[in-house]
Amino acid sequence: MYYPFSWIKTLGRLAGYFALVCVLGFYFDALMASVAIGAVLLLLAHYWNLYRLNRWLWHSKKMTPPKTGGVWEHIYEGIYYLQRRNRNKRKELGNLVKRFREGAEALPDAAVVVDANACISWCNRLARIELGLSWPDDAGRRIDNLIRHPQFIEFFHQGKFNHPIEITSPTNIEKILEYRIMPYGDKHLLLVARDVTRVTQLEEMRKDFVANVSHELRTPLTVLNGYLEMFNSDDAQYPPAFMQKAFSEMTSQSRRMQNLIEQLLILSRIEASAERVYEKVVDVPQMLRAIESEAGALNKDKKHQIQFDVDSRLRVFGIETELRSAFSNLIFNAIHYTPAKGHIRVGWHLLGKEAEFYVEDDGDGIAEKHLSRLTERFYRVDKARSRKTGGSGLGLAIVKHVLTHHNSKLEIASEVGKGSRFSFHFSTELTVVDSNATA
Ligand code: ADP
Q1: Helix (H) or strand (E) holding 402
Q2: Would you tell me how many other CB atoms lie within 10 Å of the CB of residue 38?
Q3: Which of 72, 224, 275, 293 sits CB 3.0–4.6 Å from 49 for a disulfide?
């Protein structure tokens, strides 16, 4: 407990002590000797307390000071109070640093603090993962010795930090990181690295998409323009056979554009769709009957043998327009890309507890190197052939989007010279078996 220090009391105690020493000196008739012994005893008592203070400060683990009295008690209490205050301050500061570090660890970006000598003072967990730093081993090492990309070194040494830079990640060349550097405090720098791979890819995709659409539209427009200019520029009379060919070519090119625009609209509708898959049951057998008759009309020239094996009890939760698009794209592709008089089998059946749809053909098949890219927009194995069939290169991209929306995935198996099999299945949650319908 704190009590105020009183010099009067202390001096009073000292005077009392020496008065007692003097009385004893008079009593034994040795005043000087008594005063000398009294002074030495007092000195020893002080040295004893100094020794205890030193032991407490440097060797004892106890926080509480040893018991004593007088002026020494006051000194012990003072030191104890200062120590306690320091300890609380340190604790508060420790908590603050801990909270700051936890906050920095929770950042979605890699963060590194660099001091005035370009040495690392601290880095978060993401910096260890994304930038390949190791902690605490890299503490105190120069950042430009650890991130060795020439563009980063140039950026770091130039000191112009008003724009970020984008370079590949030091740990994974597939990743693109955006580096930002923010100076703060006493020439310290905060380096923040963010994974922008997806954003860059999206930007690339957007550019490719615009270029592809323009390219796809330019060819038919050039053909149309060519004929129109020809008809417009001279009064020549063309033979009827030529006119017929010209009109048929113009019709086919304008259909191609129309088809492309329709496919693009379907694709964007599916991408923007917020419709829920679990709300309506789609009568797939009925839908397949309608597609079968459309396929019959499409098959007039090619004379394929098309066989439909449909389990009429099997329905699914889904979005009818989207599913129709996916089913018909796969069936019509088989008709288009299988040479005349081929065999095509379309199946809709239960595989375990899941509904499976497949289209098999014995056409030319697709080489392995194309398989992983078939669902990319505008990707075609043989551009010239696909154009002849009126293909836009968007069919399988639409199928992929529809299936993703229905938590499913397109599986493609194909062998050159033997044929192809396109299939997908619906999860048990989406599969509905209507036992009232006849199989
Ligand atoms: P397209 O509109 O050109 O048909 P798709 O996205 O539907 O575009 O198909 C992409 C490419 O996949 C086609 O150009 C074609 O080369 C190939 N393909 C699709 N289905 C088949 C199939 N059943 N047999 C062989 N090749 C196919």
Answers
A1: helix 395-405
A2: 17
A3: 72
